[in-house]
Specification:
Layout lengths: L1 E7 L1 E4 L4 E9 L6 E7 L6 E6 L6 E3 L7 E6 L4 E6 L8 E8 L4 H5 L7 E2 L3 E6 L1
Parallel strand pairs: 2-11
Antiparallel strand pairs: 1-3, 3-8, 4-5, 4-9, 5-6, 7-8, 9-10, 9-11
């Protein structure tokens, strides 16, 4: 089992940058494929980015490709999402997720829901 806690986030102007982090406790982080999802008010939760257990493979939603970067440090049990060139439509609650069994590609393609979730962190982009 793993527990996830997001940090960072906040308010930024359009065009700015922000980073959110996910601290994991429990089992070895390298056992888990990790993902970031987001949910805006009145909208369904959507996939943002995912990273493989070793960190060698990454996947991104088309809407964030080229602007967001997901990374991980298994030794520190941390996962990061660097967000650049932010847009007002990036405003949402951002959730960190983990799964021990799902292939990373399945998380990215919506073929399976990660087992573990953080509580979410707010990112607000003003125009």
């Amino acid at each position: 089992q793993v527990q996830l806690v997001e940090s960072g986030g906040g308010l930024v102007q359009a065009g700015g940058s922000l980073s959110v982090s996910c601290a994991a406790s429990g089992r070895t982080l390298g056992s888990y494929a990790m993902g970031w999802f987001r949910q805006a008010p009145g909208m369904e939760r959507e996939f943002v980015a995912a990273i493989s257990r070793s960190g060698s493979g990454t996947y991104y939603a088309e809407s964030v490709k080229g602007r967001f970067t997901i990374s991980r440090d298994n030794a520190k049990k941390m996962v990061y999402l660097q967000m650049n060139s932010l847009k007002p439509e990036d405003t949402a609650l951002y959730y960190c997720s983990a799964d021990e069994s799902l292939p990373t590609r399945n998380i990215a393609q919506g073929m399976g829901v990660p087992t573990y979730w953080g509580q979410g962190i707010q990112v607000t982009v003003s125009s």
